[in-house]
Amino acid sequence: MPALIEVAELIKEFRIFQRGEGIRGALRNLFVRNYSTLRAVDSISFAISAGEMVGYIGPNGAGKSTTIKMLTGILMPTSGSVISNGYQPFAQRSTYTRTIGAVFGQRTQLWWDIAVVESFRLLKNIYAVSDADYAARMKRFDDVLELGKYLHTPVRKLSLGERMRCDVAAALLHNPPILFLDEPTIGLDIVAKDRIREFLKQSNRENGTTVLLTTHDLADIEELCARLMVIDKGKLLFDGPLVQLKRRLWRENTVRFEVKDRDQAQRLESLGLPAVTAERLSDLSIRLHFPRDSHSTAELIRKVLNAVEVTDIAIEEQSIDDVVKEIYTGSALTHS
To answer: Which of 176, 178, 182 is nearest to 164 (CA)?
Structure first.
């Protein structure tokens, strides 16, 4: 399948003014100005196919938002190329932006002092959405996001969660093939997050919407994205399936056992299996930790069942939080 978004050797540099310290430094700046160059995005390349939902993560200052701004045409690359939906975003911005949707968690595209429904009507006219399509989409927004109760409220009176629901709906009012999301669930409660995630999954499933999502909420990634890209210090460190990243960094297996009584719990703790660490969770619940290369999970369970009376077993997969923590601390991936 041909790529809908193609990025090749993309670089973005910013010229940073080096301000002198103190009065002497301020006086010197009147006559001599020193600048340094910050490379926020450093030669990254990737391709995204139509219908993909891709997570784009990294620590603060990694280059995520700068990348999104180049992909939406807000920023011009220093070098490299971006072709998105057949357009060069910065060079053809006025035409290109009519074919995409974008949500920036800290900013709204709605008009602050007018009712939400008036913003939607303005967007309907801007994007030339037909009356029939507008009515159908507004009904769908209400069904999934429950927008009906907010439509006649000025945007400035909405809570953050209510506003974000409206922003996501507004970004999809013209049914764009590509949606860019920069921290769309930041600061939201669980109910608002669930509503937005469900809406995005439905848009992808029913309309084939391609989504590129930056987030610090790892539940967003696990709920929405099968593919993950990891960026740090402007460099792309990983690009592939989320399960592959977990497999690559998943060095430890854990199995939780529920046992019959306290005697069985003590017996399990004292089994003394090589390289296995026991963690007591409660009187009758014990979690065993062991390196992946020391035992197979099946082998360990078999040994425990032969020695202890067990009432329940749970194989616990390493969380994405642990995986990303390893990446962010620099202990998991190296620049390539």
So the answer is: 182
What span, in angstroms and rounded, lies between the C-alpha atoms of 100 and 71? Answer: 10
Residues 195, 205: Cα–Cα separation, whole Å: 15
CB burial class (10 A; 0-12, 13-18, 19+) of residue 209? buried
What's the pLDDT tens digit per position in 102-140?
998 778 889 989 999 999 999 999 999 999 999 999 999
The 10 Å CB-count burial string (b at 16+, else e) for 152-184 is eebbeebeebbbbbbbbbbbbbbebbbbbbbbb
If we measure between CA atoms, which residue out of 84, 82, 2, 8 comes closest to residue 45? 8
- Is the C-alpha dihedral spanning 60, 63, 66, 68 positive or negative? negative
What confidence tens digit (pLDDT) does each residue in 212-233 have?
998 877 778 888 998 999 888 8
Read off the pLDDT of residues 132-167 as tens digits, 9 standing for 90 and up: 999 999 999 998 888 888 899 999 999 888 888 899
Question: What is the distance between the terminal CA atoms of the chain, rounded to a whole angstrom?
Answer: 26
What are the chain's domains? Answer: 50-247 (3.40.50.300), 251-316 (3.30.70.920)
Cα–Cα dist 12/46, whole Å: 15
